[in-house]
């Protein structure tokens, strides 16, 4: 399969925004250095600062699956559990045009 874009959305528990932001930022560099990573950024909502999204682009779905198995991705998935107000929402997209 060809290039995919991923948007991951998380909502911090009240008072946990700074801790969640720091944790999310800790995986940016190792993710950007992964094979097949074309773009990876963390964004924080201006209107609702407890809301964060990760915007990712991967060369192939295989690269994305390898990312999910990486040590830093596994650590993040476990570490965020106590900081979130609701479950992580991850949506994968393919470009139409």
Could you explain how this protein is built, in words?
By secondary structure, the chain is of the alpha+beta class. It is globular, with a radius of gyration of 13 Å.
Topology overview:
Layout: E1 4-11, H1 17-25, H2 28-32, E2 37-44, E3 51-58, H3 61-69, H4 71-79, E4 89-93
Antiparallel strand pairs: 1-3, 1-4, 2-3
The number of helical elements comes to 4
Overall helicity: 25-40%
Low-confidence stretches: none
* Overall geometric form: globular
Strand content: 25-35%
* Count of DSSP strands: 4
Task: Please give the alpha-carbon distance between the first and last residues.
Answer: 16 Å
Class computed from helices, strands and strand pairing: alpha+beta
Widest beta sheet: strand line-up = 2-3-1-4
Overall pLDDT, averaged? 96
Gist?
With 97 residues, the chain is α+β, with helices and mostly antiparallel strands. Helix content is 33%, strand content 30%.
Key phrases:
97 residues; alpha+beta; four-stranded antiparallel sheet; 4 strands; globular
